[in-house]
Amino acid sequence: MKSHFEVSEKLFELYHRVHKLINESMTEEGVSLARSKFLFFLSKLGPCRSTDIADALSFAPRTVTEAIDGLERDKLVERKPDPADRRAKIVSITQTGRQVLEAAETPRKQVLEEIFSALDDQQLDQLQSIVNSLVRKADDIRLRREDEKKH
Questions:
Q1: What are the pLDDT digits (tens) for 12-32?
Q2: Is residue 114 part of a domain?
Q3: Helices (H), the chain
Q4: Which CATH number is 46's domain given?
């Protein structure tokens, strides 16, 4: 019987392989997976400060600033003064950014469809149930640790 560690190592291996395949496919369409995270966030949330992006994506502020610099240089996002705070800038996705994000979404979905086609419907249902259980357990552990830090 496999240990928890062995199974978790296989899950990490799968994650990294899928991540690499998706990143390669999306990059061919003009935006890496990392850059698409920023664009996706801005397309869903709307214009916001870079600090909001850093908080939401759990990135260091400097990382976000550097990413936004590159996205702005490529005309995928734009910065405008924040009317509520003249020291801050509001970042928003441009029409070009939306188009690039949309174009990159197709190969991402194709890669995932191809990978998960290895499973039949019953296996997919089982996998979803298993993943949901693991997500709940991870959330429980995170909440417990946050609670322990408070006390």
A1: 999 999 999 999 999 988 889
A2: yes
A3: 4-28, 33-45, 50-57, 61-73, 95-116, 121-150
A4: 1.10.10.10
